[in-house]
Design goal:
By secondary structure, this protein is α/β, with parallel strands linked by helices. It is built from five helices and seven strands. Helix 2 crosses helix 3. The chain is globular.
Length: 140
């Protein structure tokens, strides 16, 4: 059911603005395109139905797109409070069973310093290419 969240808006008026983020509006058609592209990217990363995706993102467009892509793929979203201290993030990740952490680039330095990123097999960074290594850029 959740993976059909945009169906009605797309059927009625795909060019209708639905979401405002950072002063810009995104239409139903654009949300559909972004979610589809992201779902393809998650599939390419090897994620499968039932896998857990931890999200450490502020309230903005990328977060909505992540939810829509996860719903489409029948992935389990593990929302993490963006204000969590790095050790709280590490604790949550260690108990979540997440296959991937999708995180805003601003949080990477603190999480690396606390050594909590090793709690998940993959890290995808939103908003920047991120540091070299196992972090993958993640764009919505």
């Amino acid at each position: 059911m959740l993976h059909h969240l945009l169906s009605r808006a797309l059927a009625i008026d795909p060019s209708r603005p639905l979401v405002e983020s950072d002063g810009a509006w995104t239409t139903a058609a654009e949300l559909e395109r972004l979610a589809s592209r992201l779902a393809s990217g998650l599939t390419a990363m090897g994620l499968e139905e039932g896998d857990r995706v931890a999200l450490l993102l502020p309230n903005r467009l990328e977060t909505i797109v992540c939810y829509l892509a996860c719903f489409r793929m029948h992935l389990v979203v593990v929302p993490l409070d963006y204000e969590y201290h790095p050790l709280q993030v590490g604790y949550a990740l260690g108990h979540s069973g997440a296959s991937i952490l999708v995180v805003d680039h601003e949080r990477i330095p603190g999480l690396e310093e606390a050594g909590v990123l090793t709690a998940v097999p993959r890290v995808a960074v939103v908003g920047s290419e991120g540091p070299p290594g196992r972090h993958q850029p993640f764009t919505a």
